[in-house]
Amino acid sequence: MDSQDKDKDIRVYDKTDFKDGNTPSKKERDRWKNTSFIASFDFAVTGIWTALKQERNMRKHFFSTFLAIFCGLIFQISKTDWLFLLLSCFLVITAELFNSSIENVVDLAADYQFHMRAKRSKDMAAGAVLVISCFALVVGCFIFLPKIWAFIFG
Questions:
Q1: Could you tell me which residues come within 8 angstroms of residue 20 by beta carbon, excluding any fewer than 6 positions away?
Q2: Does 98 map to a domain?
Q3: pTM for this structure?
Q4: Of the listed 77, 96, 129, 140, which one is catalytic?
């Protein structure tokens, strides 16, 4: 991205920009719009990759997911167990994506200043991740504790 593109990445419109019926060109409006399935998919993958790069907890959740899948393969869990295991793992990752998104939007809206409403919003989003993570922990315990117990004592 050259320096000319950097100026185009951020454009804040004011009411005066539209006072004479002027609107941004279609090319400018469509710059960040999903114009095809491939573009939409690319934006989604970019969002996941960004979360992995920037969010420490997202990396922990992905590591936990891979660890759970590895343990599922080692202990040869049933199809039903796989369903619950993968559901709980992907719910946690999805909740973390929502949490990260909410945190970024709140930071942007609050102009990176402390506001009690912003804090409450971010805390609630983090609480949702905690609730889903507790569900995933319970599912993991139901699936793996009997198998670990049998492996150690059986």
A1: none
A2: yes
A3: 0.78
A4: 96
Could you confirm whether 96 is annotated as catalytic?
Answer: yes
6 is in an annotated binding site: no
Asked if residue 103 belongs to a known ligand binding site, the reply is yes
Comparing 23-27, 57-61, 68-72, 98-102, the range with the smallest average pLDDT is: 23-27
Is 28 within any annotated ligand binding site?
Answer: no
Domain with residue 81: its CATH number is: 1.10.287.3610
Q: Catalogue the long-range contacts made by 79-88 (C-beta closer than 8 Å, 24 or more residues apart).
A: 81/143, 84/139, 84/142, 84/143, 85/139, 85/140, 85/143, 87/139, 88/132, 88/135, 88/136, 88/139, 88/140
Task: Give the total number of structural domains in the chain.
Answer: 1
Containing domain of residue 100, as a range?
57-154
55 is in an annotated binding site: yes
23 domain residue, yes or no: no
Q: Judge whether 74 lies within some domain.
A: yes
What whole-number percentage of the chain has pLDDT above 70? 85
Tell whether 77 is covered by a domain.
Answer: yes
